[in-house]
Amino acid sequence: MPSWDPAQYAKFGDHRLRPALDLIGRIPDIDPKRIVDLGCGPGEITEMLAQRWPEAETVGLDSSLDMLKKARALNGRARYVEGDVASWTATPPIDLLFSNACLQWLPDHASLFPRLVAQVAKGGTVAIQMPHNHDQPSHRIIARLSEEAPFKAPLAGKLRHDPVDAPASYWRLLKPLVARLDIWEVDYLQALTGEDPVLNWTMGTALRPVLDALDETLRPQFVERYREGLRAAYPREAEGSTLFPFRRLFILAER
Ligand SMILES: C[S@@+](CC[C@H](N)C(=O)[O-])C[C@H]1O[C@@H](n2cnc3c(N)ncnc32)[C@H](O)[C@@H]1O
């Protein structure tokens, strides 16, 4: 599992919050008693859930102690617990399972998703958002460099295959398990600002497993090669912004 740096992640708060807000906005008018936010990260979104449903018990679960520390420092309404989504179970079942930008880090969705849905009470809600962007240059350049010397040997077996599948696969997987199912994708055209903004973005996400796996000598070499590739793939607009299109997959279901 990669390490998480809350400061790096927080730099792009607005672009990252937007899909979560869009997802919360699509959740119907429900009255959940128990809410769990899987991979809650720094807790802003968990607190939004807790504010929308103040009567509910809201729990944010994350495996990163750094993220949990940030979340707890918000002094909000939610409770934060350390845990691994891969082995998490809910007793008793919960009424709203929410997860924003986390489940793409877990493998084997064909068995994970049915298991997660089974933790939700009948009539409860599942609301999930995952980046679905691994066919883009931001990810393809990492994959290409990791096949080249001198990075290939230290990165062997360290980079995962992205498990996020086609929307239709999730539909086929989940349809027999739920009463209602709505799956959609959105392409956000993110206009980033500043120097090497795509590199800064992926430093907090896709690049983390690489940074964790390489030593002090190879890490800056990889970052330089990656930076060059990104500059070519995402040229700066005359106006100054760098356009970084980003596709996200949304799943909303009623158990
Ligand atoms: C990209 S962040 C998203 C955080 C938050 N949901 C948000 O949207 O701001 C991904 C989070 O998932 C957590 N995470 C990744 N794998 C996990 C796992 N197996 N179990 C629990 N948390 C995990 C990371 O620690 C990180 O906080």
Give an overview in words:
The longest helix has 16 residues, at 218-233. The protein has helices at 6-10, 13-26, 44-52, 65-73, 109-117, 137-145, 152-155, 167-174, 197-203, 208-213, 218-233; strands at 34-38, 57-62, 79-82, 94-100, 120-131, 180-192, 242-254. The protein is of the alpha/beta class and 255 residues long. The mean pLDDT is 94. The protein has a single domain, classed as Rossmann fold, CATH 3.40.50. It has a 7-stranded mixed beta sheet with strand order 3-2-1-4-5-7-6. Residues 1, 4, 16, 20, 39-41, 45, 62-64, 67, 84-86, 100-102, 105-106, 205 line the site of S-adenosylmethionine. S-adenosylmethionine binds next to helix 2.
What's the quick description here?
The chain is of the alpha/beta class and 255 residues long.
